Amino acid sequence: MSIASALGLTKKVRYAVVGAGDITQSAMMPGIKHTGNSELVAIVTGDPEKARKLGEIYGVADTYSYEQFDTVLASGTIDAVYLGTPNWRHAEFAIPALEAGIHVLSEKPLEISVALSEKIRAAAAASSAKLMVAYRLHFEPGTLDAIDRIRAGELGDLVAFTSFFGQMVDPANHRASSGIEAGPLFDMAPYPINAIRYLFGAEPVAVEAAIGTRHAQSGCADFDDTVAVTLRMPGDRLAQFTVSYYTNNIDSLIIAGTKGSIHMSPAYGFGMGIAQTRRIGDETTEETFKTTDQFGGEMRYFSDCILNDREPEPDAEEGVADLRVIEGIVRALKSGQREELAPFERLRRIDTKAQVQTLGAVTPPKDVNASSPTQ
Prior knowledge:
six-stranded parallel beta sheet; globular; alpha/beta
């Protein structure tokens, strides 16, 4: 008998959200009520007034400051936390939670360095609790369909990937003045990097080139607001992408092989259906996939893993894999030269059938708008 069966069908995982920024408020908190197996019971934020207002909206009485996080962990009222804090504060909350036996769903990137991500990974390995990194596209039907088509050989031998992911960030936004760790490389590049890795089913071996540029009008004074990258994949295949805080919203990718190609636009957004244009030989087809609540969907999957004692995918190793590439890009931006990436083998890949069967179709909340997101 599974844990979920033993506890009863109405058992729900009790979550505290840690960090109440835009992505938490606009996407994850509205999505929790659509999971069926999760509930919001506590809010942790550095802004007491924000906590009070959100508590009223969501009927949550228990609100805490960041300094009271140990109290939350010891309260006995939560089973899991969702981390929506700035990237550089994930380890600060993930490690104590895991050490306390509290499950962790962390936004991506997992942290701002491989070293810190490995510390989180080690804490998860030593804990009875589970950790998942919130790669919501691992549960999105258009993405899973593209992976299946590539694995089935529809595109032939893969040759190249290209992508552009951009948005216009307000210079007054904290991301414009919080250094490179808040810039497009850490904030947006995990999307194309992760797509490269799951579509190729392989890990990059080198950063061939990385070029950054700064526009005075962007307000990003201490880091590049636009970064273009070329990665070398095994088998002399190439993957290129550009991320930017200084373009109108753009969100697309193309992966091409010897028999065909798939163009996805939108490719990374939420609140809209992912769209594919497929060209196989001389035949072109177009398909827009059903819009799903990607945030509620990933939480539903994680809660199902908790209730049924299954190890989630994507796990901490997936977070480490992306940061390995990001760190190589940072080195290439500084050196202006090719940077080799240390050998790395991902032990798990997306199981598309398992993800779909476990997830099901989660209807998007009416209050989640179409967006080119950064989480």
